[in-house]
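Hey L., structure's done. Input below.
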Amino acid sequence: MRVTSTQYAKSLYEATVDKSHSEVDVLVSNFVKVLAKNGQMRLKNEILQKFEKVANLKNGIVVAEVKSCEKLNSELVDKLNSFIKVKYQAEKVVIENIIDERIGGGVIVKVGDEIFNGSITNQLRTLRRHLTK
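Output:
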């Protein structure tokens, strides 16, 4: 039976919950040995990404990627934080601000598979589509 990266990530998370730092070190070391033994070391990066998602989900943490043409000010960060906490019923929100001058203004917020595109570029594109109809 082939074990998927998601199954590895969930197993590793469950094994490390409520463990001390030294216990986690031993578990991770043994986990790497199992990956090597099963010839699946190539999955390590994918497993780590899925592990982070599992851990965040279990701990009520939502990671939001926010693209803007300049660094977000603290007022906007607070508003986004509140909005995301309510929308996703999160205990904690981590906002990763990515600067992308191509969006012209506004923000693009990505949480998981959902994207909220409030960029000026998108608004102009939508307006152009409506005007040309």
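The chain has a mean pLDDT of 93. Residues 21-37 form the longest helix (17 residues).

-- N.
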